[in-house]
Structure formats: structure tokens, C-alpha cells
Amino acid sequence: xxxxxxxxxxxxxxxxxxxxxxxxxxxxxxxxxxxxxxxxxxxxxxxxxxxxxxxxxxxxxxxxxxxxxxxxxxxxxxxxxxxxxxxxxxxxxxxxxxxxxxxxxxxxxxx
Length: 111
Hints:
Elements: H1 2-24, H2 28-43, H3 47-53, H4 60-72, H5 76-104
């Protein structure tokens, strides 16, 4: 009888762990929603904060923004260019970002 009870208890524990792991998993829709929330939050920042984020060494935030924006739109060309911008564009992109934010109110990207 004790062995039968242990088996039932083990099955209950396995079911609880399985349901817990299912609750913690992310679907692609959840990821897309999170990416779109990040994009919306960055777009809704005031112009002054956007300019502060475009300063040298902090401008990496806008490079990551471009990467996330391309991932959210499934844009392969944008994804490749964003990765290239991370590698080679950081030293000079901050100037372009400052000008674009001052003139257009947002950073320039392919869309």
C-alpha cells in the first residue's frame, strides 16, 4: 500500500511541476508583445530624454532599440544592419541620432 501511495504522490508532484513549467513558458506572442511594449515606451519618451539617451556611450540604447524594432517586425535586412550598427556604428551613430531626434523627434530607422 505504501508503494502505491508513493507512486500516486510522485505522479501528483510530476503533474504540479509540469503545470508550473507550462505557466512560466513564453509564447512567441508574449515575446512580440514585450518587444512592442519596449518600442512604444521608447517612442513615448520626451524629446529631452531621447536626446540624453543619444549621448556618446549611452547611445547603445538606441542601437538596441533598432535591433528590437527589426526583430518585432521580422525584418531581416533591418536585423542585419542593426547587428552591423552594434559592431561598427556606435562611435558615430550618436551624432546622427542627436540630429534626427532634434529634427524629426525620433531616431531614424528603416521603417
